Amino acid sequence: MSVMEGVSNGEEPEVVVQACMLSEFSESTEVRALFSSLPDIHHDAASKEDTIERFVVIMDRYQEQPHLLDPHLEWMLNMLLEMIRNEKSPPLLVHLCFKFLYIISKARRCTALNVRGYKIFMQLFPHEVSDVQPVLDLLCRQDPKDTETWETRYILLLWLSMTCLIPFDLSRLDGHLSTDPGLNRESIMDRILAVAKSFLRVSDKSRDAASVLVSKFVTRPDVKQKCLGDFLDWCLTTISQTSEMTMEGTVTLDGALQSLRGSRSLVVNLAESSVTGSVQATKPDLDSASLEEDYDIPQEVENVIEQLLVGLKDKETIVRWSSAKGIGRVTGRLPKELADDVVESVLECFSFQETDNAWHGGCLALAELGRRGLLLPSRLSDG
Question: Start and end of every Tubulin-folding cofactor D ARM repeats domain (predicted)?
Fold first, then answer.
């Protein structure tokens, strides 16, 4: 009986299922040969394209079973990094290696969520103190307008975000900068923040990597103390002064919105409230309502929330999506009552007087709030 006959009779197409299931990374020898050939073919456009195409075909086989690649990630990474770090490697070869690194990170994504790829892969990148300066220098030498090398900038930004996890004050890397004011050089901290800001304005995928870098960098204790306030001012100024009527403005807004705020679950806030409530029960002279009055939310935060709510109605999908992400992140840091107010504002998008864009933005925001566990049970009946 053929597979199609089995399907028509209501039976499971077991042959097809078995054919799709792989047991190991069977092309490891071929991939080693492909990598080894890069120094010889990087200058030949036709050979280069054939090699890239073959590698993409191989990686695509493992989109459904990316875990099979895990035992091989380290040697693949090391082979490519060896060529990247070789001072004799020409720029074309270096860019080609970064393109292969991007293909690997893309193949390693979880197909259900499409977000885990770089997080798993980038953990294998060297991220010692000695790696910060070389990675930053290489990134600063890249041309943001070169459309052929965006994979290089994307990987470098993610790599730099990994090096930012070192448990040392970054000011230690500045050497004699603090003792020799005659030298007109920026500190490592200022350079990283400047390059991150510059790539938040680009139109390619490296903008997403720049937002990852910012999220890890500005939340470092040493950076947060010195730079977080100025960076938030820059974000708010950018959002308030940028017009979404142009493509450049849309890109800039997206970068600024993606870079805002971290992640904290409302469950934590509710748990704290319940603990505090149990304490208050033993003190009849205080009521739980007074707790809400103790929260002092800065006006800047309210302005950000207002901008994000407006962004939910934008004509550009990417702006609506970024605004929804921002609303989820900000709401997770608010106390219960204020978080519920944000949810109520989001629900106002579902008015018959609103446009299709507003409805779509509202759906994106509710999905993000639900994903983060920020929708209170009392609000479910309002959906």
Answer: 261-382
